[in-house]
Write a structure and sequence with these properties.
Length: 101
């Protein structure tokens, strides 16, 4: 069974999708969200200055410099957690083997 994504992972994903600009529809599909859920994330990300809204023929969301910095930091954080989790899982697997020696 898959774990639910954390809100930080969802925000990181939205920031990645919006790196070169994205419509709300593109964000919904690329981030695997629904339109109701994405609205609260977009509001939070724009209110905190991590996304900017560009009005034209259609509304487009674009990651700001501050958003890019957060996105990179979150990616490093999640990569480190994955690395440590993998090490821990490996250690748990070999512990029973060591105790039988």
């Amino acid at each position: 069974m898959k774990k639910k994504r954390s809100s930080e992972m969802i925000m990181q994903n939205i920031l990645e999708v919006c790196a070169h600009g994205a419509s709300k529809t593109k964000i919904v599909y690329k981030s695997n969200l629904n339109f109701t859920t994405v609205n609260s994330y977009l509001a939070q990300l724009t209110d905190t200055g991590l996304l900017e809204v560009e009005q034209g023929e259609s509304t487009e969301y674009k990651t700001t410099k501050r958003g890019e910095e957060l996105m990179k930091g979150l990616k490093q954080h999640h990569d480190e957690i994955s690395r440590l989790s993998s090490m821990l899982a490996h250690a748990i697997l070999i512990t029973p083997c060591l105790s039988s020696l």
